[in-house]
Amino acid sequence: MRISLDRMAAALDAVRVGILALDGEGRVEFQNSETSRILGLSSGTSTGRSLTKLLGDTHPAVSLVGEVLKSGREKAQNACMLPSQTEERPLWVDMIASPAVDGGRGCVLTLHDRTIGQELEALVAQRTSDRLFQHLAAGIAHEIRNPLSGISGAAQLLQQRLSEPALRRYPDLIAEEIDRIRRLLDDLAQLTWGREDERRMVNLHQVLDHILELQMSASGDERPHIVREYDPSLPELWVDRDRMTQVFLNLVRNAVHAAGPEGRVTVRTRIEALFQIAAEDGTRHRMVRIDVEDSGPGISEEDLPHIFTPFFTTKPDGTGLGLAIAQHWVVRHGGRIHAARGHAGGARMRVLLPVGRGT
Ligand SMILES: Nc1ncnc2c1ncn2[C@@H]1O[C@H](COP(=O)(O)OP(=O)(O)OP(=O)(O)O)[C@@H](O)[C@H]1O
Ligand SMILES: [Mg+2]
User: Fold this and answer.
1) Cβ atoms of residues 186 and 224 within 8 Å
2) What is the Å distance from ligand 1's center to 319 Cα?
3) Whose CB has fewer CB within 10 Å in the chain, the N or C terminal residue?
4) Confidence band (pLDDT; 50, 70, 90) for 150?
């Protein structure tokens, strides 16, 4: 049985692999829908045109095809970063270019989009570190609370027995420090045995405004310039309002600290163009994206892998729990958080949260 060319083209359009056929001069003969999506080329405009003209001569697909047309030998390139046509985030694509099988001089390029797989891996890594953190936090809190009660009791006893006033300030000092440790343990305990989430539909812009107002009143005139770039079409989210306040308060505090009084902090929201994996079962959701970007010195390559680790801090008075707590709640809400370099060279913390009640 012979199938028609139309049926064949429809079948290739249904395949989740990009297929692009080129003639010996590198001109497009055929492309399926997945190729159009990955390379951002519509088949109407590209057929008969040179791939180099369409994508530019520095595009990785153009270089790969060029090599195969010259050598006549198959060549592959894995995990290649291609600019995405629909959003800022790049795509991760495996490419194979093979010489035409019919002895002609053309070549066929196949494109396999690995972006979702990469995101899933990153998500699993975040969830694993979140569980590790909960475990660690519970262990530490438990181990410290017991001896603390003993120390506290001894300090009280000392306070009662010491007659010399000059010496009595030492037990006071001990009591103050114990209080500080107890507050820290309370923070940790919140993450491990805290109350159930109380989720409802929340307007995130109101949460962000509230945080920015708090921050402005707390730092008076000595604060960076704050810019809000809100997407007015942002939907309400199914989240725990207090937890979200904790998340963004930590990010804004870090940004304000990094930017300093002369700097600038930008809070930007938008709805992501693409669907992302959000739920543990791999369901895909629409996501909203919230960026907190500052004009500070940025995060060094060396520190970047550690900033979400509990107790990692480069500040003399920091506890290093801010980002660990933020990550914990974002992940619990089915979201993602990551750090990158912002446009101005400072840090850009990006939070993705799912739309709807999927998680
Ligand atoms: N906007 C930023 N710019 C530069 N470095 C940052 C930024 N945000 C976080 N960091 C780095 O990540 C580290 C960890 O941040 P995190 O908020 O977890 O703890 P912290 O701010 O040090 O202490 P705290 O527990 O008081 O928040 C910081 O010490 C800093 O080195
Ligand atoms: Mg912090």
Assistant:
1) no
2) 9
3) N
4) confident
* Residues 255 and 320 occupy one common structural domain: yes
Number of domains in the chain: 3
* Mutate-to-test residue for ligand 1 from 186, 254, 265, 291, highest number of ligand atoms within 8 A of CB: 254
Span from the CA of 318 to the centroid of ligand 1 (angstroms): 8
Mutate which of 307, 325, 350 to test ligand 1's pocket (most atoms within 8 Å of Cβ)? 307
pLDDT value at residue 87: 55
Pocket of ligand 1 (CB under 6 A): 250, 254-255, 258, 294, 296, 299, 303, 307, 312-315, 318-324, 347
Ligand 1 mean position, distance from CA 307 (Å): 7
54 plus 76 within the same structural domain: yes
Residue where a domain terminates, one of 146, 179, 194: 194
Query: Are 101 and 186 part of one and the same domain?
Result: no
Same domain assignment for residues 158 and 12: no
Query: Where is pLDDT greater, at 346 or 221?
Result: 346
249 CA from centroid of ligand 1 (Å): 12
Nearest CA to ligand 1 atom 11: 307
For residues 107 and 120, state if they share a domain: no
Report pLDDT digits (tens) over 4-58.
888 888 888 888 899 999 999 999 999 999 999 899 888 788 999 999 999 998 8
Is residue 217's pLDDT more than 90? no
Residues 175 and 239 in one domain: no
Predicted model pTM:
0.65
φ and ψ of 15, to 5 deg: -80, 140
Q: Over range 260-280, report the average pLDDT.
A: 81
Ligand nearest to the CA of 319: 1
- Residue 177's CATH number: 1.10.287
Distance from C-alpha of 294 to C-alpha of 225, rounded to nearest angstrom: 10
Residue with tokens 């923070």: 187
Q: At residue 201, does pLDDT exceed 70?
A: yes
Is residue 119 domain-shared with residue 220, that is, in the same domain? no
Query: What residue numbers bound the domain in which 90 lies?
Result: 5-113
- Pick the residue whose CA is nearest to atom 9 on ligand 1: 254
CA dist 25 → 68, 75, 102 (Å): 12, 18, 16
Among the atoms of ligand 1, which is closest to the Cα of residue 324?
Answer: 18
Q: Residue 277 and residue 53: Cα distance in Å, rounded? A: 35
Let me know: does 333 contact 239? Beta carbons within 8 Å: yes
141 with 253, same domain: the answer is no
